[in-house]
Amino acid sequence: MPGRADQSGAALLPRLLADGIVVSDGAVGTMLHAAGVPLDRSLSELNTTAPALVRDLHAAYVAAGARIIQTNTFEANRLRLARFGLGDSVAESNIAAARLAREAVAHARDSSDDQPPVFVAGSIGPATSSSAAPPIPLRARLDAVAEQVGALAGWVDLLVLETFGDVESLLRAVDIAAAESDLPVIAQLTFGDDGRTLRGETPFEAAHLLGDRDVLALGANCTVGPAVLRDVVAELAAGTDRPVSVQPNAGLPQRLGKQFRYAHNTRYFAQAAADFVAAGANVVGGCCGTTPAHVRAIAKAVSSLRPARPPAPVAEPPRRGRIVVTAARPAEPPSEPAVAVAWPQPDRFHVIAGLQTPGDQEVADFVSRAQRLRTAGADLIALREPAPPRTRVNPIAAGLLLRERVGSDVVLPVETADRSLAALQADLLGAHALGLQIVVCRTGAPRVAGDYPDPAVLWDVDSIGLIRTLRGLNEGTDWRGVAMAERTRFSVGASLTTMAADIDYELDRAEAKVRAGAEFLLTDVVYDAEEARTVLQALVERGIDRPVLAAIAPFDDARTLERLSFEMPHLTAPSSALAALRCRNESSDDDTAAAAAVTAAVETIDALADLVAGVVLHVPADRSDHGADLIARVTARGAQP
User: How far apart are CA 17 and CA 342, in angstroms?
Assistant: First the structure.
């Protein structure tokens, strides 16, 4: 069986890079998915369960003209494989992948007397995926990379470290590769539409920071197509005297059911390959969405080209923006997160007014009501999102209005339903920049407006995943696991359902939310104080010591509780609470009913006061007067000795 190529073969590659353009292969994952492999299956597993499929794909790229074949091991480290229950198969999967690639190369050599040398590269990606949860400690990530390098080292000609989102992570991986093997290394970052790494470094900066490492080539791959990477290649070449590699995506994918579709643009890729060479590239291939047809077009386009002589590296990078990474050998990141907003404040009973975010014609009244409730004694305002599909103002915009016009801090609701994690993070970073730093994470439900929910709508995480993301932002890491220039200071809250039909499950979820990083809990609306006390005492018995805020909606009608009781399968409400609401709503005197609601709310607060750190009092638009009276009464009671 073919093994690792001899050292003379590996030594030939640097000379080839100096004399000509070396063509690399294209997408592995995309092609395997196109062959029918589900998106949620481990691709590395195919190295042992479907070897012919993987081997034939490599052979197709060799036949298309690729002279670097990357093993099907991008995800074949312990941490990524563990998601599929394959954490102990690192050596088996990596060695099998390398053998399949070598077999494809050997078969091509046996089939043709004039087959040029083809090199097998061990593909190694970041230790964890961009959305890995919970965050993985640095030591575990470094160990995972080292283990994978060790598994591949005896079977491949070189290593390709690819799709790293920041220079720090790539530097660590390069150092590990050097410590664990004597193989040549191609080190590749991934860049966004702005031509910067996911952390914000420019290509020029990245080239300088990688400049003291002994790498065969440095380059760019994945995330974007050729249009963005042309300039990236030029900047990389301007910042280094080493060869430059580039492997762009075919473009942006379109999701069709359980498959992704990319543009068929081989002619475009052929022209892009020539442009890459003119910009300074020495290795040209493809990434997601590219096929053997793309590689064939690249090989033909560069067959007669020679490397452009890159300019000598300059002493100082151009002033294109602040350099995010300042040390070539970064130190261990701090283990302690940044100090979040000190809220809820200890030894204080918080009285918070709950308002629905307004419709587009209700903004002035919304601001006026908030001012009145603050004057009555509310510490701050908690926003509630109206039930879909009602048109509403974005909660972040509503929160900013309250900060600017009312001078109030805001508790911001954030739901994950129907949202991608990238979009959620973008909104949250915007909220943080505007001073909105207290958030409550909810999973929510699909938004239905006259039809079934769209199963293809992005929905990356539930509330626990969002809490982990916020904790990561506070620790200086974004949702992709990429280090950020600055940390956020969110105070992270989570929801707690006291009317859950399965209380044990709800308590388990509460524990998981606290482990994920929740710093306080906010209950659903409490309609029955004894029921709520049972749940809150169970929290204490489980050792969950986070502050709890109780939501109370004294002016809700019986229909609201009926809907919760009979239309939400995961909720249940005591019949006594429903009977009390019906009795109150049947009063012919509206003011009398409202006054009774205020009195009942005060009694509920008194019943829960020893178990909660405060209350959120929901005040509907038509109950501002009574709501202000309730807040004043509760605030006055809290001030009494």
Answer: 57
380-418 residue pLDDT tens = 999 987 655 456 788 999 999 999 999 999 999 998 887
Closest CA to 474 of 464, 460, 488: 488
Name the DSSP letter for residue 259.
E
* DSSP run (H or E) holding 93: helix 90-111
The reported pTM is 0.68
Task: Give the whole-angstrom CA distance, residue 463 versus residue 105.
Answer: 47
Backbone angles phi, psi at 550, to 5 degrees: -100, 125
pLDDT digits (tens, 9 = 90+) for 420-453: 888 899 999 999 999 999 999 998 876 544 454 4
Q: Is 87 helix (H, G, I), strand (E, B) or coil?
A: coil
Say which residue the tokens 């989102």 belong to. 165
Tell me how far apart the 2 most distant CA atoms of the chain are, in Å. 99
Contact 185, 124 (CB under 8 A): no
Question: Per this entry, what is the length of the chain?
Answer: 641
Residue 629, H or E segment: helix 624-639
- Going from the N-terminus, what domains does the chain have, and what CATH number goes with each? 7-302 (3.20.20.330), 350-639 (3.20.20.220)
Write the CB contacts of 312 (distance below 8 Å, at least 6 apart in sequence): 241
Query: pLDDT (tens digit, 9 = 90+) per residue, 125-140?
Result: 999 865 555 668 889 9
Q: With CA atoms as reference, report the closest residue to 337 among 500, 486, 496.
A: 486
Residue closest to 514 by CA, chosen among 443, 441, 418, 445 = 441
Q: Which residues contact 283 (CB under 8 A, 6 or more apart)?
A: 17, 21, 22, 23, 24, 68, 186, 217, 219, 243, 244, 245, 246
